[in-house]
Write a structure and sequence with these properties.
47% helix; 9 strands; 311 residues; nine-stranded mixed β-sheet; 12 helices; single chain
């Protein structure tokens, strides 16, 4: 039970999600926790995304819609959204996903009742383009598991709720495209912020063609590795060597492996489809094919297995 009702700012960056954005935004509008502001930033969509959200904002004045002058990509868009936020807490949401009705209530209750924590995520269901549940993902909830997992993969998905004070201290997201959320968590870890997950399913992630969740891109794999390397630098020396120039150098260093990775991603996508249809032998066949084609895919899959085992 919440004694006070602080303002929660929900950040929703959107780009060409006309088929899903209404359901996504309404899932936030219809939260059981009502003291929210919904900050939607359209990153120059070329479809009807902006018009759909504009119509919703007429009905619900808590929706604040902005549009970038040009396509700025996720990091700049998120940092702009942070500048607009007035809430004591910040929540993330994607424009093609679904927040279950009690999501904000559950996450906020946890942070209000546990002041030692600065950020909390949750378990998620996965759904297809038609909203059909195709799987689920449980995240670690124990500190020991989180500490062991953090170098394998992000132990909290980006659809978290965090204290605004943490964002201010870390100065928002850094330009590590595709792994900006992971880098944010790793910087929290370096600075002794505490985070965890609720042991409940409060969110649905949509797996579809065209979004990053379906099959992760090569640069995102590299940027996750880069974020971990920066974390190790901070542990050893108290600071890291992050710069936009070094991001470019890191990407260029491994660019020759991109073609093999893209081919392996085709196999990985087939494995995901066979898993959703419970055809596990074919799923394993394509997982092996994906692993053999790209060492980066093999590294990722091994980390995912260890992640589940340690959790």
């Amino acid at each position: 039970m919440l004694v006070s009702e602080p303002l929660v700012s929900i950040l929703i960056p959107v780009y060409n999600v006309e088929a899903f954005v209404k359901e996504a935004v309404l899932s936030i509008c219809n939260q059981t926790y009502k003291n929210i502001e919904i900050i939607v930033i359209d990153d120059c969509s070329t479809d009807k995304t902006h018009n759909i959200v504009a119509e919703l904002s007429i009905v619900d004045p808590r929706i604040k819609l902005y549009k970038n002058d040009k396509n700025l990509k996720i990091v700049k868009t998120l940092n702009f959204a942070l500048e607009q936020a007035k809430g004591e807490f910040i929540a993330r949401m994607d424009g093609d996903d679904i927040s279950y009705p009690d999501r904000i209530k559950h996450q906020l209750e946890f942070l209000m009742e546990n002041p030692q924590y600065d950020l909390v995520g949750c378990h998620v269901d996965t759904i297809d383009e038609n909203g059909r549940k195709i799987g689920s993902l449980k995240l670690p909830v124990r500190k020991k598991s989180i500490d062991k997992n953090i170098f394998l993969s992000s132990p909290v998905l980006h659809i978290w709720l965090a204290r605004t004070s943490a964002y201010k201290q870390l100065e928002g997201y850094r330009e590590i495209p595709g792994a900006e959320d992971y880098d944010f968590l790793l910087r929290m870890h370096t600075n002794n912020f505490r985070f965890t997950n609720l042991d409940s399913f409060d969110y649905a992630v949509r797996i579809r063609d065209g979004n990053t969740t379906s099959t992760i891109g090569f640069s995102q794999r590299l940027m996750s590795n880069y974020a971990v390397e920066l974390h190790k630098e901070r542990v050893l020396s108290g600071k890291d060597s992050f710069s936009r120039e070094n991001v470019v150098l890191y990407l260029n260093k491994y660019s020759k492996y991109e073609r093999d990775f893209d081919k392996s991603n085709v196999y990985l996508k087939q494995a995901i489809l066979y898993k959703s249809n419970k055809r596990y032998i074919k799923m394993l066949f394509f997982l092996v094919a994906a692993s053999l084609k790209s060492k980066f895919q093999f590294q990722y899959l091994i980390r995912r297995v260890l992640f589940k085992f340690i959790s």
